[in-house]
Amino acid sequence: MHTIDWIFVTISLLIVLGIGIFTQRYMRSVADFMSGGRVAGRYLLAVSKGEMQAGAVVFAASFEVIARAGFTWTWWQWINIPVGLLVATTGFVVYRYRETRAMTLAQFFEIRYSKRFRVFTGFLGFFAGLINFGIIPVIGARFITTYVGLPPVMPFMGLEVGTHLLVMALLLSITLFLTLAGGQITVMVTDCIEGMLSQVLYLLIIGSLIYMFSWSEITDVLADRPAGHSLLNPFDSMSLEDFNLWYVLMAAFTSVYGTMAWQNQSAYNSAGLTPHENRMGNILGRWREYGKQALVYLLAICAMTYLLHPDFAEQARQVMHELSLIPGEQSQSQMRIPLAVSHMLPVGVKGAFCAILIMGIFGCDSTHLHSWGSLFVQDVLVPLRKRPFGPKQHIRVLRRSIAAVAVFVFIFGAVFPQTEFIVMWWSITMAIYVGGAGAVIIGGLYWKKGTTAGAWAALLTGSTLSVGGIITRTVLQGDFPLNGMQISFSSSLIAIGVYVVVSLLTCQEDYNMERMLHRGAYEQLGEKVGETRASTPNRPRGLLARAVGIDENFTRGDKWIAVSLLLWGVIWFAIFAVGITWNLLDPWSVETWKTFWHVVGIGIPVVMSLVTAVWFTWGGTRDIFRLFQHLKTQVVNELDDGTVVGHQNLDEAVATRTGGDKHPD
């Protein structure tokens, strides 16, 4: 890399480290460390959560999919649009979970089910999360090593050590510092700053790629595929393995079923100022993701053009030679596109993308470290201790647990031989927990007849089937008929049936949902322990508004944001429906598909990148200042530490016993 490239990287790194040092002064309690004080605004949530999806491993995973499926992946994903938008606007799961005031999902499980169930799910989720996270730092480090142009092996203390291991150690150390400094407060603010900086740099890279590659060059490469494997025509892609229509349909189901079940961003679920702010953060996050689409696709298809088009044959030979020096077939496959990107980007632009990657690694890894380290303490140690931690001791234990997670993932990444596609590995490891947890979460939040026995049965069934599928697939390899997504889908369906049947057989009385959600006669209890309540003016709602989840908490501006997102989704789903009908009656030519994707796959996403860069930079900056104002004036509640007593959070149980609560039992 050139000196100019390193300047981009250095400035970004100094900004992030400076913010990390500054924010640690605002962390004063367990709730601050775990949930950012529960005072985050919608834009802060949207940008910081989104930065987790900008890490090097996410780019590598996206490049893998695009290289195999091209634009056909986008086409079939449009099936998911109506479902995904309804989940976002209704606040499905997210809204009710925030009403429980639980810091972690397993804490909610103790409130709703039992302490033993909390401990078991806490450990199971922690275990699945660890091995899921285990490949992320090493792939990110390998990406950076390849992209920067470092040699595969370097001498270290008299030994020949893989360079990516040294890079992983450095990046994990910086990430660990940021995570330990101020907990979720530091993670949120640094991730938000990283996200806003990245959005601006996206525009620089997009402009360079459009200038460097013509659309005709790109489509010449994408169109040169055998029958049944098209990267442009989704109706000529049915022979593609793994990432096809059936994968998308199963992913649509599991994404709804597993809403909020996977806890790699668990702290964000309880960090919103109100349940409505959490919901709006999810809605806005959808808009921000549209702004990133152009960069990911342009980088991937331009890199493919660089490698396969005759005009770049000489440069491609150099890339392939360097690729052959990387040990491991799967590693070579993952690094093929990143290495091409490294060679094709000009000075300055290369540094800008490197800064995006490194900031994304910090955002992704810090969120994972915070989630899995704190979940082990909150959902395994805290329930098992007879004597609760003191506030300072509690934070100290949280920090040690997070540090231990960092050490584990370094060792795991160094010794584990990865043989799956990244997204397949994620599907398999997530299914260990989500396969049964989805039914338990949805049933616990929405069904008063769900029982502890039903929860145990569903979780054990889903987890056993998922783990059994992983082991069988590993042993039989090519002889096993199901891939990772199919294992996850089947396990989830069976777990739902088990939860319903066992709950109906064992339910003796309905569960008190209003107390858990602080509604009705129990609404004042949350306010007594310092919970911020949004005003709920009596705004009129039409039938359509009620159908899509727009309630009285939506202001006029909120409605514009939510409705515009819904309309945006409806338009794309309509294009999808018309396109299917048209192609069944009169199939489009390859030239038509080239023009279609030029406008839909590149042109419109580029415009969205510009709009979201301005929009979310303003909103994120505003919410960061508001966060600090709230933290300055907030009263510290030392009882708000994740402990549950008698199916209530500890601070609420104390408030109830001290006589302030007038609700019935």
TrEMBL record:
Keyword Ion transport included in the entry's annotation: yes
Domain of life of the native organism: Bacteria
GO cellular component terms listed in the entry, alphabetical order: plasma membrane
Topology of this chain in the membrane: Multi-pass membrane protein
One of the protein's GO biological processes: sodium ion transport
Predominant location: membrane
Keyword annotations: Cell membrane, Ion transport, Membrane, Sodium, Sodium transport, Symport, Transmembrane, Transmembrane helix, Transport
InterPro entries: Na/Glc_symporter_sf, Na/solute_symporter, Sodium:Solute_Symporter
Catalytic activity annotation: L-proline(in) + Na(+)(in) = L-proline(out) + Na(+)(out)
Residues passing through the membrane, by range: 6-23, 43-63, 75-97, 117-144, 164-189, 201-223, 243-262, 294-313, 344-364, 397-416, 422-447, 454-475, 487-507, 560-584, 596-618
MF GO annotations: symporter activity
Subcellular location: Cell membrane
Annotated family: Belongs to the sodium:solute symporter (SSF) (TC 2.A.21) family.
Protein name, entry field: Sodium:proline symporter
Organism: Ruficoccus amylovorans
